[in-house]
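## retry 2 of 3
previous attempt timed out at serialization; input unchanged, resubmitting
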Amino acid sequence: MSLKQRIEADIKQAMLAKDKARLQALRSIKSLILLAETEKGGTDGISEDTELKLLTKAAKQRRESAEIYAKQQRADLEQVELAELAVIEEYLPGQLDEGDLRVRLLEIIQRVGASGPSDLGKVMGVASRELAGQADGRAISKAVGDLLNNTDF
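## retry succeeded, writing output
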């Protein structure tokens, strides 16, 4: 079952359950998918990789918005963003914890032959592709920087 089909089925369930917050989040995901399909010019659907990128981007937007609302002390809007984020994360692959992230990054660092901070771009390119959807870009960047600055790896 494609992501679009899962979303449509979940929209029906949310409508029956009268869960407005979940319904709003699901409709926003469906909207992203439909926009991506029309950009391609066809109705064949979009690839799983594109779906993952869309969901990751939507999750990042919700996370950043929630942070801004928290700083502005707008708890009502922050809760809306966090509720939508929780729904979006249901469709993303499981996130790596910090330990697993470091292990995977060490493998990538050794594979690309990185030896210091000057190789950050080379490592980030590979890590961003391989860990897409499994870890936040900021977390990846911070961990790569820490690992490359610490030459004991």
